[in-house]
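Title: Prediction job returns without error message
Component: structure pipeline
Severity: low
Priority: P3
Assignee: unassigned

Description:
Job completed but the reporter wants confirmation the result is attached to the right record. Sequence as submitted:
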Amino acid sequence: MQWYWVDLAIAAIIALSVLTGLIRGFVKELIALCIWILALWLAYRCNDMLNPWLQPYIQDNTVRKGAGFVLILMATLLVGAIINAIFSFIMKRTGLSGTDRMLGMAFGFIRGVFIVSLIILVVQMTSMPHEEYSRNSRLYSSFNPVVHWLNGLVPEFIKQAQIIDKQNGIIDISDQNDLELS
């Protein structure tokens, strides 16, 4: 079996993540991860707090929740980026070692696997997993354990949404039997 374009895309995403980890180092990557986790948590827990301000502009409740999520996420990431820049300036004064960069590579690999798994999870909520490229890929199915784990973390309001499928019309993705995790 030859390498398919999906395999090359997966390898490229992971390689780019590893390279970024090598360049930035473990400490900066860890701070960035903590900021992302905090941003996602705050956005998930607090998006309803923006409802009173968004209601005059957005009538649909689902869209309003999504907009609140995105606004809180972006604001938290912006503040986090400023904090990370300040911390990075302080860390440069101490001099980062090669160990920090090697740990950054390992961190980058784990992050790359997570990103690929998240992309696969989203793709599997459509008709795309039934396509030839997912069946012929050497690497696609090896991400299934992480994809299954991530599927359990998807917020319920997203699972209850409907996706427009090009071949089959509208699919209710709240029925987990429709998600074929190959």
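Comment from assignee: result matches the submitted record. The longest helix spans residues 61-94.
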